[in-house]
Amino acid sequence: MTDQPDHRPAPGTALGPPARVRAVSDDGRGDRVVLQGGSAVALQQLFAVADAPEPLLAAFANGMATLPGELGDMGDRLQSAQASADWPRYGRAMRQLIDKYIRTIEQHSPDGQPDSLRLSEQLRLLLGGAVVSLLQHDPDLRDQAQALAAQLRKWQPGAPLEPIEQGVRELGHQVGVRAESWQEQQALLLELFALLLENVSELLDDRSWLQGQIAAVRQLLAGPLEAESVERTRAELREVIYKQGLLRQGIDDSKAAMRGLMGEFIERMDGMAASTGEYHDRIGSYALQLREARSIADLNHLLQEVMHDTGKVQQQAAQARDHLASARQEVERAERRITELEQELREAGDLARIDPLTQALNRRGLDEMLQREMARAARNSTPLGLAVIDLDDFHQTNDTHGHAGGDALLQHLVSICRLLLRATDGVARLGGDEFVLVLPETPGADSMATVQRLQRSLAHRVLTVQDQRVPVHFSAGLAQWQPGDDADALLRRADEALYVAKRQGKNRVQAG
Questions:
Q1: In contact, 116 and 122? CB cutoff 8 Å
Q2: 92 shares a domain with 124
Q3: Is pLDDT larger for residue 316 or for residue 398?
Q4: Residue 475 CA to chain centroid, in angstroms?
Q5: Which of 91, 149, 443, 487 could make an SS bond with 127 (beta carbons 3.0 to 4.6 A apart)?
Q6: Which of 377, 499, 364, 508 minimizes the C-alpha distance to 443?
Q7: Number of folded domains in the chain?
Q8: Domain membership of residue 55 as a residue range
């Protein structure tokens, strides 16, 4: 007689502690002994009369038949062999049981711990270490994770898992709920900060050197807050602030020098005014003495005193004139120096209008160029084209060649754009792998031809990263400025065209 084939799906794991057993079998063979988690009472009832080999084998077969899944099928086969006294078949079934199940019961690791305990320890470390550290700002969830970690420390194989399972499930649910709340709070704070920056920017003059720094922070807030981008922006702002600090010190020194010159000049003018007043009084006294003079000697003496006082006043006037000329030259030099320093200060602020990685315009630089070119297009009734470019498979390049490879690809694209585009055209990086081309005085057909020429040039100019060829291709959406358009409307139409191009496949250009 051959063994009966298995009909139930094989269990996916090794045999573990006895599970809850069916009260009624899958094939409907009446009630059986119910084993709840390996109940000792049920086992005693099952083997109470097993005082001889055959009853013992029958009890074992009956006990196996109460188990779920494939183990229950094995029990059915043992029952069938025992009922027909086919002990060779019973033996084969026992051998299969040993080979397939008993040998797969978890073995102890070299350090003497079973796999279940090792897994429990790793889960405890995850809850008590990583999860607790992430929940420091939420004491309730932190304490809940620590309590679960303590329960896992005490758990042993065979002990009930339901309390721990329920606790882990509840903790996961609470973390998910709180995470949404934390994300909402972060989004509100970022929105509040962006609104504050916008308000400060509107209060400042457009030429203020602070505009560049504000633009850099606003661009950072507009994209995903990655640690690398935050650190890069922080380093750039620190460098700009340092340079601007040096320039502002020069401006302050020049202004202080101008104030000193003006103060000295006013002081000299006060002295000259006093001397002139004294001279006027002396001349008045000389006039009285002249009327009372009786001899040529008296007149000669008066004339000498008048000439002496007049020469003294003339000397003071000449000195004041020379000092005034010198002060004027110093003031002019200080004014030129202040103008130069203010220009350098604005140029230092302009560093925040440039994307530091690719040297293309950033979002602020793009906004300024669009405002300027749209005003020119409206004034001169000339066309203005715009293209939004998105690199295809950029994330794959990052995954294959790392961030260095991705950065090289972005720089390569901008360098080819600068090579092919006119001096009046502009290329800006919106963030990530998305760029914008601004094409003044370019109608729609020419805009399409320009972008397609750029695609062909990228295909022929091979980029090599780590001695490997990296294909560079992009999809693009085009839009033409129309009277009444603002920058957002123009960008939105180009972005919608880009979406259509992406849906059609890679390396496509779509006019909007």
A1: no
A2: no
A3: 398
A4: 24
A5: 149
A6: 377
A7: 4
A8: 1-105
